[in-house]
Amino acid sequence: MIKSIEMTGRTEDDAIAAALRELGKSRDDVSVQVLERARSGFLGLGSSPAKVQVSWEEPDEPAPAPAPAASAATGDTARVEEFLQGLFERMGVEAQAEAQYDPETNTISVELTGTRVGALIGRRGETLDAIQHLTNYVLNSGSEERTRVNIDAENYRAKRADALTGLARKTAARVVRSRRSQTLEPMNAYERHVIHTALQDFEGVTTYSTGTEPNRRVVVAYDPATAPKDIERTDERPYRSDDRRDDRRDDRRRDDRRDSRPPRRSPSGYPSRPVYPGASPDPEKPPVDKTVREWN
After folding, report:
1. pLDDT digits over 181-205, tens only?
2. Do residues 257 and 251 touch, judged by C-beta distance below 8 A?
3. H/E element holding 219?
4. DSSP β-bridge partners for residue 2
5. How big is the CA angle at 180 (ends 175 and 183), to the nearest 5 degrees?
6. Where is 165: in which H helix or E strand?
7. pLDDT (0 to 100) of residue 101
8. The sheet that has 50-57: what strands, in order across it?
9. Strand, coil or helix: what is 251?
């Protein structure tokens, strides 16, 4: 930004020197424009001083920082708490919601507390997930910038994540030993993310999701490219549809063994099992003499 002052003196040099003294600058720091030259007049009559304009450049002053407006995040946090309190009243549940905003992740974390907060979790967190989904929709509806809302109660999310991590590793170990892929139960997006994260560095398996919501599942598949070489195999090959015929053959063999057992005999002494063609007949027995003999 350019600034300037005007100074007068008996001569142009005197006016410039006076301006530099007042500004505390050197001649190289300013530019000078003579506005009026000095005139001596005749016998001291009609004389006038010299007038100069001295200009210099000043750095722009930083614009004042805008007053922290009622932070949008603070407003969003209050909206989330107000919405949840109204929801709990309509549900007849005594619970309180405490929300905190994280500017680094643009996330609002909500912790639910109360006497019946377990009713807000539901089976495998289904009720808690529904409340979280509804709160995200209410907060971000019509907004250009999305703020994520995470809702937890009684530390359920962390406990569920630990349980899913253990399940993922046990399943992966079975997949590596048997070399058979396994499909887990339907899970929501958060739980599937936990499974994928837990097994991303597990040797011998790879994971992917299949199906459509709400029945989307994680498949833990065998990956021979990364499988360790010293794992004992529990099966030489995966189960195929051809194995069903083998199973039927095994059933017939068991039936044959059952027919080879000794035949059961009826009270009359004759076999109760039918005689098949080609089989040797049982030896005939003499008829039983039922005549009563009298003894003298």
Report:
1. 999 999 888 899 999 999 998 999 9
2. no
3. strand 217-222
4. 57
5. 80
6. helix 156-178
7. 92
8. 2-9, 50-57, 31-36
9. helix
With a cut of 60, say whether residue 242 has pLDDT above it: no
- Is the link from the previous residue into 214 a cis peptide, with omega within 30 of 0? yes
Let me know if residue 259 belongs to a domain. no
Residue 157: its H or E element: helix 156-178
Number of domains in the chain: 3
Q: If we measure between CA atoms, which residue out of 107, 120, 105, 114 comes closest to residue 77? A: 107
Structure confidence by residue, pLDDT tens digits, 91-108: 888 889 999 999 888 899
pTM of the model: 0.51
Paired strand residues for 33 = 53
Q: Output the pLDDT for position 180.
A: 92
What does the pLDDT look like over 202-239, one tens digit per residue?
999 999 999 888 789 999 999 988 888 765 555 544 44
Same domain, 134 and 167: no
Q: What beta strand segments (E) does the chain contain?
A: 2-9, 31-36, 50-57, 95-102, 107-114, 148-153, 182-183, 205-210, 217-222
Residues 50 and 81 in one domain: no
> What is the chain's mean pLDDT, rounded?
77
Per-residue pLDDT reduced to its tens digit, 21-61: 888 877 777 787 878 887 776 555 567 788 888 887 776 66
Q: Which structural domain, as residue segments, surrounds residue 214? A: 158-222
- Are 123 and 107 spatial neighbours (Cβ–Cβ below 8 Å)? no
Within this chain, do residues 149 and 177 fall inside the same structural domain, yes or no?
A: no
Contacts of 77 (CB under 8 A, 6+ apart): 99, 100, 101, 108
Top pLDDT among 242 and 71 is at 71
Q: Are 149 and 129 in contact (CB under 8 A)?
A: no
Find, among 202, 208, 197, the residue nearest to 164 by Cα: 197
- The encoded tokens of residue 49 equal 């001083």
Q: Are 49 and 58 in contact (CB under 8 A)?
A: no
Give the span between the Cα atoms of 285 and 66, in whole angstroms: 118
